[in-house]
Design a protein that fits this description.
With about 140 residues, the protein is an alpha+beta fold. The chain is built from three helices and seven strands; from the N terminus they run βααββββββα. It has a seven-stranded antiparallel beta sheet with strand order 1-7-6-5-4-3-2, covered by helices on one side.
Length: about 140
Amino acid sequence: MPDVFQDLPIRAAARKVFDAVSTPAGLDAWWSQSSSGQAEEGAEYKLGFGPGYEWLAKVLRCIPYTEFEIELIEADEDWRGTRVGFSLRESNGVTQVRFRHIGWPEANEHYRVSCHCWAMYLRLLKRYVERGEVVAYDDRLDA
C-alpha cells in the first residue's frame, strides 16, 4: 500500500502544535471547513469539507503533546480505512512534526493529488501555529 510521509519543523511548543492537529478549532484553522470531536482515544470526529464531503473519523491514538492519529471510517472511498497521524517531538522551542497518511489502497490519481494537497495543508498548519494565520477555507490550496 502507498503511504504519505512528511516531516516539518514548527517553531512552537508541542502543546500548541498538538492543539492545532487534535482540536476542532485547530483543525478548522488549516485543514477542515468544520469539525467536531474530542481528542481522546475511541472518540469520533466529524470532519466537514463542504457539501458531499461530511466525513467521520475515529481517534486511534491520543497522547497529549506527543501523538495523535485518526482512522477515516466514513469518507471518500480511497480515504476510507486510511489513518492520518502526527508524532511530535519538541526541542529548544521547535516541534518536529512527523506526519503520516497511511493505508491507501493504491497509488491512483486521488493518492497523487492528496500527496500534493497534504504538503500544501501542512504548510498552512505551520503558518497557523507559528504566526496565527488562518487562510479562508476556499483559498487554502492557492495560498
